[in-house]
């Protein structure tokens, strides 16, 4: 059973065309590594809090980003990635903060 209709679309569309919304949070005690992590994540998405980023990536981009992030992480670091489908993103509530950071390739008018 799919959590939302977008998952059913994976049958009809190749994964490289489907964009997944990712929320990435990290806790890194080393200043130099933490700065490297932030700079790398700025290449892929938008910072929403000090150690939280939001990204719209397809499967290929996500794999590439993960490979780069794994190179930065060391023992004792924490990195969490939450994947949200389009319907789940639409159900997100933001209180007193920036709107969800979505990078769209097109806009419907």
Structural notes for this entry:
- Helix content is 34%, strand content 25%.
- The chain starts with a helix and ends in a 19-residue tail after the last helix.
- The model is unreliable at 8-14 (pLDDT under 50).
- A 4-stranded antiparallel sheet has the order 2-3-1-4.
- It has helices spanning 5-8, 31-44, 59-72, 86-90; strands at 19-27, 46-49, 52-58, 78-84.
- The longest helix is centred in the middle third of the chain and has 14 residues, at 31-44.
- The chain has a domain at 15-87: Alpha-Beta Plaits.
- The protein is α+β, with helices and mostly antiparallel strands and 109 residues long.
What is the approximate shape?
globular
Number of strands: 4
Number of helices: 4
Helix content: 25-40%
Provide the CATH architecture of the domain at 15-87: 2-Layer Sandwich
Q: What is the string of helix and strand elements?
A: HEHEEHEH
Indicate the mean pLDDT: 80
Approximate strand percentage: 15-25%
- N→C terminal distance: 33 Å
Q: Could you tell me the radius of gyration in angstroms?
A: 15 Å
Query: Class of the domain at 15-87, according to the CATH hierarchy?
Result: Alpha Beta
Question: Segments where pLDDT lies below 50 for 5+ residues?
Answer: 8-14
Trace the largest sheet across and list its strands: 2-3-1-4
Query: Main β-sheet: number of strands, strand sense, barrel status?
Result: 4 strands, antiparallel
Topology-level CATH name of the domain at 15-87: Alpha-Beta Plaits
Derived from helix and strand composition plus strand pairing, the structural class reads alpha+beta
């Amino acid at each position: 059973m799919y959590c939302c209709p977008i998952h059913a679309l994976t049958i009809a569309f190749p994964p490289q065309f489907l964009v997944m919304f990712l929320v990435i949070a990290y806790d890194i005690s080393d200043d130099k590594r933490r700065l490297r992590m932030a700079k790398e994540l700025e290449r892929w998405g938008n910072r929403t809090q000090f150690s939280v980023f939001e990204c719209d990536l397809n499967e290929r981009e996500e794999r590439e980003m993960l490979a780069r992030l794994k190179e930065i992480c060391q023992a004792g670091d924490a990195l969490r990635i939450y994947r949200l489908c389009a319907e789940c993103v639409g159900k997100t509530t933001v209180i007193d903060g920036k709107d969800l950071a979505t990078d769209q390739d097109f806009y419907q008018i």
